[in-house]
């Protein structure tokens, strides 16, 4: 999550191309569209697309989380509305607030609220203003858990029913492979900040107000790194492309989301990673349709097979099975094959429902036509009247 000071300098709504009152679904739809267009895999070697991809990802990580979005909106609204504005000029800060404001004696640096904006900084706005409004501050502003990520995959119908494993390529903030996420140069370790004793927060009085604010020595992290890792500049995180093998459980349905704990964005300086949510799309099958754990299939049969009875082969997810069609079976009748549907996670499987449909030949040879005429004459002689009583008022 971007430090709150950086929030004031970024318009996440503009980055996603949505209005400030956009719904959660509109934000998600806009992010997915832009992520597909700007993904580094789709724009190899395009530095501008990669930079925009990072901005879009950061915007979604904030606006896609209801709590972070409220915090972001409140932060920008507070400063844009003139909070902490003094008599001086804007000093280059967005929203028109001044850098130094007098609170009952002594200069007060607004940038102090944000821990100086260092690489590991970024305090919780609730901590920053808790003291100002006489709310109890939180006990720590150490680096937070990484953001959750979303991905999509499309499966064949039968793979989704039986379960499978797919490989996903993700470009996202990940633990630095040099320092293994600690942020410290290999061979060294972070140490507890002596100023705040690892709390990440210090309290001080400014005139008539008491403030709880991020520790300036450790920038609110609770620890100090004397020798930062050269590859991640002490963050413990680098953006890289990684491949994740995702096990798709049996019976997954179209639109279902699968959660992979700890596979999202890495947290700063060894903080826990977020989760990865994979939305599964299932392609239609040319043979089967699905209803819960049951499968349905239409079976073409000849007129002779449903009149005389027959045993025919029926497709399943695992090969074919023999199905006995009783004599004089009506066209459109559905027969059940137990245990040949979609496997259940609890064990067993649903059923396969087979609907017989009479297939009419496009043409017949002379011998078949002659036999058919004999049959039609015999049918009438037996008194079979297929439309008897049909259409009577």
TrEMBL record:
Query: How is this protein organized at the quaternary level?
Result: Homodimer.
Q: What is this protein called?
A: Chaperone protein DnaJ
What residue stretch is flagged as signal peptide? none
| Cofactor details (free text) | Binds 2 Zn(2+) ions per monomer.
Q: Which compartment or compartments is the protein found in?
A: Cytoplasm
Organism (species): Williamsia serinedens
Q: Where is the CR-type domain?
A: 163-241
Residue windows of the CXXCXGXG motif repeats: 176-183, 193-200, 215-222, 229-236
Where is the J domain positioned along the sequence?
A: 11-76
Residues recorded as binding Zn(2+) 2, renumbered to this chain, are: 193, 196, 215, 218
Named cofactor requirement(s): Zn(2+)
Domain note for this entry?
The J domain is necessary and sufficient to stimulate DnaK ATPase activity. Zinc center 1 plays an important role in the autonomous, DnaK-independent chaperone activity of DnaJ. Zinc center 2 is essential for interaction with DnaK and for DnaJ activity.
Which family does the UniProt entry place this protein in?
Answer: Belongs to the DnaJ family.
Coarse class of the primary localization is: cytoplasm
Sorted UniProt keywords = Chaperone, Cytoplasm, DNA replication, Metal-binding, Repeat, Stress response, Zinc, Zinc-finger
Zinc fingers classed as CR-type: ranges? 163-241
What is the purpose of this protein?
Participates actively in the response to hyperosmotic and heat shock by preventing the aggregation of stress-denatured proteins and by disaggregating proteins, also in an autonomous, DnaK-independent fashion. Unfolded proteins bind initially to DnaJ; upon interaction with the DnaJ-bound protein, DnaK hydrolyzes its bound ATP, resulting in the formation of a stable complex. GrpE releases ADP from DnaK; ATP binding to DnaK triggers the release of the substrate protein, thus completing the reaction cycle.
The keyword Zinc is assigned to this record: yes
Locate the residues binding Zn(2+) 1.
176, 179, 229, 232
């Amino acid at each position: 999550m971007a430090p709150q000071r950086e929030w004031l300098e970024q318009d996440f709504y503009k980055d996603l191309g949505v209005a400030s009152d956009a719904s959660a679904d509109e934000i998600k739809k806009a992010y997915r569209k832009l992520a597909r267009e700007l993904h580094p895999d789709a724009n190899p070697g395009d530095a501008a697309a990669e930079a925009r991809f990072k901005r879009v990802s950061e915007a979604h990580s904030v606006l896609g989380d209801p709590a972070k979005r409220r915090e972001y909106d409140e932060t920008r609204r507070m400063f844009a509305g003139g909070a902490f504005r003094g008599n001086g000029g804007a000093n280059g800060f967005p929203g028109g607030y001044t850098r130094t404001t007098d609170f009952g004696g002594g200069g007060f640096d607004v940038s102090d609220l944000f821990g100086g904006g260092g690489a590991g900084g970024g305090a919780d706005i609730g901590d920053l203003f808790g003291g100002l409004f006489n709310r109890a501050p939180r006990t720590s502003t150490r680096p937070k858990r990484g953001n959750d990520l979303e991905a999509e995959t499309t499966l064949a119908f039968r793979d989704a029913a039986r379960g499978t494993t797919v490989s996903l390529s993700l470009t996202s903030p990940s633990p630095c492979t040099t320092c293994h996420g600690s942020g410290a140069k290999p061979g060294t370790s972070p140490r507890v900040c002596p100023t705040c004793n690892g709390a990440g927060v210090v309290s001080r009085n400014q005139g008539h107000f008491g403030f709880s604010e991020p520790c300036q020595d450790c920038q609110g992290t609770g620890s100090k790194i004397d020798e930062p890792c050269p590859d991640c500049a002490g963050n413990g995180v680098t953006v890289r492309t990684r491949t994740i093998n995702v096990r798709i459980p049996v019976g997954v349905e179209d639109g279902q989301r699968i959660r992979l704990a700890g596979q999202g964005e890495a947290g700063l300086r060894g903080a826990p990673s977020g989760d990865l949510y994979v939305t599964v799309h299932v392609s239609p099958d040319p043979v089967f349709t699905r209803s819960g754990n049951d499968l349905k299939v239409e079976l073409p049969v000849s007129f002779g097979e449903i009149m005389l009875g027959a045993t025919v082969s029926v497709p399943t997810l695992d090969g074919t099975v023999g199905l006995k069609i009783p004599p004089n079976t009506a066209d459109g009748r559905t027969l059940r094959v137990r245990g040949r549907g979609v496997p259940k996670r609890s064990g067993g499987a649903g059923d396969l429902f087979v609907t017989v449909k009479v297939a009419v030949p496009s043409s017949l040879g002379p011998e078949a036509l002659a036999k058919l005429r004999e049959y039609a004459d015999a049918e009438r002689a037996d008194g079979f009247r297929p439309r008897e009583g049909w259409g009577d008022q």
